[in-house]
Amino acid sequence: MTVRMPRMSRRTVLAGLGAVPLSTAVKMPAIAQSGDIPIGMVLPFSGPTGPYGPDMKKAADLMVAKINDAGGILGGRKLKLFIENSESSATVGVAATKKLLEVNKVELVGGFWGSPVALASKPIILAANKVQMLSCAANAVTEGETKGLIYRFQAKSTQWGPAGAKVVTQIGAKKAVVLAQQNPFVVAMIEPFKKEMAARGGQVTDVVMYNPDQPSYRAEVEKAFGGEPDAVFCLSLLTDFVSIAREAYRGGFKSKIVALSIGADAEGKFLEAAGAEVGEGIHHLQPAPPLDSPSYANFVKEMGAPAGTVFLFAGNAYDQICTTALAMEHAKSQEAAVWAKSMRAIGNGPGEPVDDVIEALKMVRAGKAINFNGAGCTCDFDDEGNTINRAFYVQVIKGGKNQGIGTVT
Amino acid sequence: MSAYLTTIAILVCEAALIGLALNLQWGLAGLVNFGVVGFVAVGAYATALLSPLVGWLPAMLIAAALSALLSGGLALLSIRLEENYLAIVTIGFGEVVRLVLLNEDWLTKGALGIADISRPFSELGVASGNDIAFLLFSIALVGLSFLLLEGLARAPFGRAIRAIRDDPTVSSALGKPVLALRVRAFAIGGAIMGLAGALHAFYLTYIDPSQFTPIVTAYAFMAVIAGGRGSNIGLLLGAGSIMALLEGTRFLKDFISIIDGTQLSALRLALIGVGIILLLIFRPQGLVSEPKRFERDVFPRANERTP
């Protein structure tokens, strides 16, 4: 029997040499150093909610860098942010949450976009006594047992319905049809919408439901628009709304479309996908970030976007980092169960209104009472941990551009 | 860290159960089942809905029985069809299940899903103790299923379905009841998929239709292909390595700065695809090849005997 030694061929050597530049990309394991405070986020980077992940990550990274550059918190300790991809799937989200909690030992699991991921991760986070922060999820997450550890930075789904009804009636529509995706976040908007329509003398003549990820929405569009209602309230997310808007345009239907900005804007992605002609005249609404505040203007600048850009979920990610840092500083502890109790003290007031987090941190250290206002919301929370004071910002698509036409409350 | 490993181990157990079942249906009996996820979902929902009423163990057994019944029925409906048509019917079944779960709110709570499913052994206390008990239970379940399926594969039943897979006409001419054997193989596989679903529901304690997408089926096929079609031991290796790749790549971005979360999710699937392609090129029979596949495996000296 002969033993064959592996021989290094010229090709192997070349391949090895070629890999050398890559090795510079290998960095030390990102395990938090002893003084660092680990925090985590589960964000969607792929799947139907994938479009929101990158901007949220950018905003969160920005904020962490800003706080750390200004000297960190709790006497000079740095925040260390770990981000995991939920792939818009509950199973993946649970594994990601487990990894953050067990491997990275995070005090906060934030980000959460989408009800299935948030609902499936909730029991794990609560069992570990850590804080869960939500960007967009159904009412059910903050219902039931929360141990005071769950905070919602976005309007509850039931709040969207009445705001939609106000927009529909403001544009002069009396007869409306609801066209909605089977999705827990969206379904909860329908009943409040109907109620508000009735209160305003309008009428909802039909509710058409459809399943997500259909190859075509022609049948549903024809059913919803076919009766020629004055307006169709489209409760859709980005991918399905692009197809629906195209289908309605192709069919030549005259009913006005009122939609959610998470479908009809999605940070500019709707117009990119559907084009100006299809988009023309579509009204859409979303919970308003505090557009006129200097902190929001500053945030838009930091994100490198043109002034006036409406960021929704990126602002929420930004706020989640800010409030976490402030609450930790206020409670003088990185222990989640302890600083969670400080969330209302720094966000709800009474105290001096402040919107710059570095300034706010200084004031907290000086023992002053503050009322922090963020880039995505005013960061005021009710007893269940839901954000309050939500106004909705309404826009209309004209000539391939979103034009703000005011807010409804 | 250990609790995270427990999570991975439980997910591997679930993948292994699904893979073992598919290995019986497709690996041994040659019945393509693209509706794997449908049976898993039926098992999960039946368990979630029944366990508050009858307790967790009976609920699991009923879930397995229901899943077996459905798969047996589906097999009866379509089994006379050629292989490809069975594949189409099973794809359809998977979709139908998902749509029923999504739209029959009165039973399944629709898109909202079912939350707060109580997990067995939760009375052992929170966090790690309960997780480890559940892991042991999952491993026991995989072990039992493995023994059962390995026993079946070695029994006359196993030989008969392998013969049917390779040539139904010949088997039929030898007096084997082709239809009955196929239905049985499909139903047993269905039952084990139902058990996997039950495990999923118990572990996540929250289920909704978005967890049961065709990617579950794809992973099961990957595990069978990687492990070696027809080999149960190979399947365990295959399921383990697919999950290890999927979860292991999660750590890549902590080590390599040029990869961020956005690229990573695409990269993970691509890596698995490349892995499977390489495996099929260099080891087409999978990690472990099917035992006793050829005449020479059974009669090592067969060639010497021939004149």
As residue ranges, the low-confidence spans of chain B are none
| Average pLDDT metric of chain A | 84
Largest sheet of chain B: none
Share of helix of chain A, binned: 40-55%
Description:
The complex is a heterodimer of chains A (409) and B (307). Chain A is of the alpha/beta class. In chain A, 41% of the residues lie in helices and 18% in strands. Chain A folds into two domains: 37-154 and 312-372, Rossmann fold, CATH 3.40.50.2300; 158-286 and 391-408, Response regulator (Rossmann fold, 3-Layer(aba) Sandwich). Chain A contains 17 helices and 14 strands. In chain A, the strands form three sheets. Chain A has a seven-stranded mixed β-sheet, with helices on both faces. Chain A has a five-stranded parallel β-sheet with strand order 2-1-3-4-5, with helices on both faces. In chain A, β11, α17 (357-365) and β12 (370-372) form a beta-alpha-beta unit. Chain B has a domain at 2-213. Chain B contains 15 helices and no strands. In chain B, α10 crosses α11. The longest helix of chain B has 28 residues, at 127-154. Chain B starts with a helix and ends with a helix. Chain A binds chain B through residues 25-27, 29-31, 43, 45-46, 53-54, 57, 82-85, 87-91, 94-96, 98-99, 101-103, 115-116, 119-120, 122-123, 127-128, 138, 140, 144, 182-184, 187, 209, 211, and chain B through 1-4, 7-8, 11, 99, 102-103, 110-113, 115-116, 126-127, 200, 204-206, 208, 210-211, 213, 215, 247, 250, 254-258, 260-262, 264-266.
